[in-house]
Amino acid sequence: MKHDVLITDVDNTIFDFVDFFGPALRSMVYVLADKCNTSEIRIYEELKDVFSNTGSIEHQTVIKSLPVVRNLNADRQNEVLIAGRRAFDKTRRARVVPYSGIVEVLAELKRRGVLVVALTNAPLYQAIRRLRIELGLSKYLFGIAGFVGSERDHSEEADSIKEKHAREYDRGRQKHGLLLTLEHYELKPSGAGFQRILDNINVDIRNVYALGDSVAKDLAPAAPLGCQTIWAKYGTRFEKRNFDTLVKVTPWSADQIRKYSSSDDFSPDHIVEHPLEILNLIDGTMPSLFDRL
Asked: Which residues have CB under 8 Å from 169's CB, separation 6+?
């Protein structure tokens, strides 16, 4: 029996990345500026340089890469590193939660026989860990596809990432029917990651849906493959202060970031203002509990 398949983005689709990352970053910057006896402006500037060089705003060794930290002796570096990470993690734990309705949606989709696969540009080990530990959603997912790792990492950092990747991959393999590591060229906005997923599942393309907050990255690449596209418009709403914090440290302008979420150049098949509306679009292979009420 062929199943319906939902290929879903994670950040700003499963949980609110902007409203987690903004406050967590501000907490970290405040501590780093205090510990390094410098200004928060300088920390933000150095963070932007590091993120531009690594191509990611979730670089695992970002604090150690900051020039203001590298100028400290080894003991002070370690002290600053621990303090900065603690500040970030404390805020992260309070704010990384699924959107309202997401747990109910994923549980019902699984009950309907829909295969849900998370597709993210984040390293696979990070995605598995976040979905499993921080969000508690692994049990609802058929599969996860994520980045194999950063080609720009130094050897010591790369080895650490490989070790983390191996541990999380082993844990994920026990829980999911599909785990895929993607090369850089397969990351969104390329359609190659979507194709890899389709190649590994026996599915009628007419029964495949792509869900995401970014029209340009999550939907437009999936449409030519035959996927029905669902714009998670709820994922484009966040606090301005948190969005402004994100802009401070990314190599992209505010307009560039907004363009990824704009539907001006692409018309999705469906638009949802709240996660629960997804259940109106995907029937699955079994009758819905909601249909019996």
From this structure: 124, 125, 128, 179, 181
